[in-house]
């Protein structure tokens, strides 16, 4: 027993050291890969940059590794489920709605992917974590020219559900009259109005926007409505616009 006990102690210490080294390797992998993802976000001055992505990746790796050490693969699976939902709430915090525009969706998705990288690293799947990182970086960089090309294409109202708006600028005291003129001009050509709202307002001028009910409209007809409005009293400027529905 005097010979076996020291040997068992050494084996136990070696096993503990091996587990600790494996944990350190998982955390280091998550840290390095999270740094790659975060650097790209920081370079583009996004709200969730280098430190946020690193912390998400390292945190996911730490929780997954903890689950592995306590309950094995079943524990890691439970932890990963909570990580996915938890990072979802974190990503919701970087999504901002500015009028009809929504910003931060890509940043939130990147945080979610950083958590996936960390979970893979924490589960010991380091090659998989590296592969996910490469795909995340490719999505944020290589696809950008394609996104820019699609965004620069003229909006084809015949192939999408579109929102048409008639815009008019007038003096503040003329808003009621111009609102009625916009509604009458559109209804005269068979385009009922959903609502008329004030887009911008100063002491000198007010911009009104009348949203059409139909999702299809003839540009030539709208040009005629604009010309009629521009000739109307109290209207200092008029135009129309079309945008995709959200």
Describe the structure.
The chain has 246 residues and is an alpha+beta fold. It folds into two domains: 4-151, no CATH class; 162-244, ACT domain (Alpha-Beta Plaits, 2-Layer Sandwich), CATH 3.30.70.260. It is 62% helix and 17% strand. The mean pLDDT is 83.
List the helices and strands and how they pair.
Elements: H1 4-43, H2 50-92, E1 96-98, E2 101-103, H3 105-122, H4 126-141, H5 144-152, E3 162-170, H6 175-188, E4 193-201, E5 206-212, H7 219-230, E6 235-244
Antiparallel strand pairs: 1-2, 3-5, 3-6, 4-5
Give a brief description.
With 246 residues, the chain is of the alpha+beta class. It has helices at 4-43, 50-92, 105-122, 126-141, 144-152, 175-188, 219-230; strands at residues 96-98, 101-103, 162-170, 193-201, 206-212, 235-244. The chain has 2 domains: 4-151, no CATH class; 162-244, 2-Layer Sandwich (Alpha-Beta Plaits).
Q: What keyword list fits this structure?
A:
four-stranded antiparallel β-sheet, Alpha-Beta Plaits, 246 residues, two-stranded antiparallel ribbon, single chain, alpha+beta, 7 helices
């Amino acid at each position: 027993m005097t010979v076996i006990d020291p040997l068992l102690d050494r084996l136990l210490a070696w096993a503990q050291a091996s587990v600790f080294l494996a944990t350190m390797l998982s955390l280091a992998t998550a840290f390095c890969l999270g740094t790659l993802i975060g650097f790209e976000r920081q370079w583009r001055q996004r709200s969730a940059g280098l430190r946020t992505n690193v912390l998400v990746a390292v945190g996911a790796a730490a929780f997954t590794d903890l689950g592995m050490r306590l309950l094995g693969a079943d524990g890691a699976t439970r932890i990963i489920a909570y990580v996915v939902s938890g990072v979802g709430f974190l990503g919701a915090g970087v999504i901002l709605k500015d009028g009809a525009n929504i910003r931060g969706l890509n940043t939130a998705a990147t945080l979610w992917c950083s958590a996936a990288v960390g979970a893979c690293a924490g589960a010991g799947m380091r090659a998989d974590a590296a592969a996910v990182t490469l795909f995340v970086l490719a999505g944020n960089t290589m696809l950008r020219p394609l996104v820019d090309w699609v965004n620069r294409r003229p909006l084809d109202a015949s192939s999408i559900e579109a929102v048409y708006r008639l815009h008019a600028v007038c003096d503040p005291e003329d808003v009621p009259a111009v609102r009625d003129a916009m509604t009458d001009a559109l209804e005269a050509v068979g385009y009922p109005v959903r609502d008329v709202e004030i887009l911008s307002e100063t002491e000198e001028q007010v911009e009104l926007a009348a949203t059409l009910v139909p999702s299809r409209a003839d540009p030539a007809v709208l040009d005629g409505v604009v010309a009629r409005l521009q000739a109307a009293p109290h209207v200092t400027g008029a135009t129309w616009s079309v945008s995709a529905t959200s």
